[in-house]
Amino acid sequence: MRQLVAETQLSPRDLILPMFFADGIEQPKEISSMPGVYQHTEESLVQAVREAYEAGVRCVDLFGVPREEDKDAQGSPAWDPEGVLNRALRLLRKEFGNDILLMADTCLDEFTDHGHCGVLDEQGRVDNDATLELYVAMAIAQARAGAHIVSPSGMMDGQIGVIREGLDAAGFEDVAIMAYSAKYASAFFGPFREAVGSSLEGDRRTYQQDPANYRESMLEVDMDIEEGADFVMVKPALPYLDVLAGVAERSPVPVAAYQVSGEYAMIKAAGANGWIDEKAVMMESLISIKRAGADQIFTYFATEAARMLAKDA
Ligand code: PBG
Prior knowledge:
Layout: H1 2-5, E1 15-22, E2 29-31, E3 34-40, H2 42-55, E4 59-65, H3 84-96, E5 101-106, H4 128-145, E6 149-152, H5 159-169, E7 176-183, H6 190-195, H7 215-227, E8 231-235, H8 241-250, E9 255-258, H9 261-272, H10 278-292, E10 296-298, H11 302-312
Parallel strand pairs: 1-3, 1-4, 1-10, 4-5, 5-6, 6-7, 7-8, 8-9, 9-10
Antiparallel strand pairs: 2-3
Helix pairs in contact: 2-3, 2-11, 4-5, 9-10
Family: Belongs to the ALAD family.
Pfam families: ALAD
Keywords: Heme biosynthesis, Lyase, Porphyrin biosynthesis
């Protein structure tokens, strides 16, 4: 009876698995603050994507982890066809074709030696407009390497419009844009910084949203849609369900939410201590994110949750 009247359904098809591919490692390397999540080698990446696919997941989101010595002030491995992320895209596109959607993180922070999402001016401030052209070059390189979806996550003003124009001009009209529209300057991203070996000192408060603000996020969403976003996203998820519900209410395009590294780490840590029932909390958090209005959910639990959903069905 409960299933018959359930107002919200979660499906493996709703889930997007974020993954890390690293240069210069011989073995997959577990991220200590994210048990069960790895920096992958080529072999383990293909294997993990296959497992996700077999569980019913149909989209993965790729992050590249370059060697420290390959980083520079501009983040040039980002648009280098031989850069770590672009190689991962080519590898997976060759292996899986169109069976699984490949999304790429379109942001410079993994590739810059200062760890910011954009380039810096002489005063060391992030230069919004100088960053935009680098995002365009990065998005085109990712499309060329096989990305079905690019996902600008750097929160620069105007990034969606210029990337759309750049992709279209390069013949990639059918590559979609997942816009990180309401992305908060969040302490919940902590474990991610370890995951990508971030060089960041300081914070991202000049370009990411203030956790105190709701209305400002609605403006960000409206602008991204106006500029051509195919999806808009709210991030983190659980602490921002009100924002997610507000975006879902007004958006004419699909709305995604990102259950981020810190949300994952908290559930894993409490679960490992026996303080909560990890699997139950995992499923409850995902159904809550869906209920609040997410059409797609980025989660490091994607494969595991998809397997549990398949068992229940
Ligand atoms: C930036 C980016 C970040 C995350 C995804 N893309 C980090 C940041 O903005 O500091 C965080 C993801 C997570 O915490 O799981 N490229």
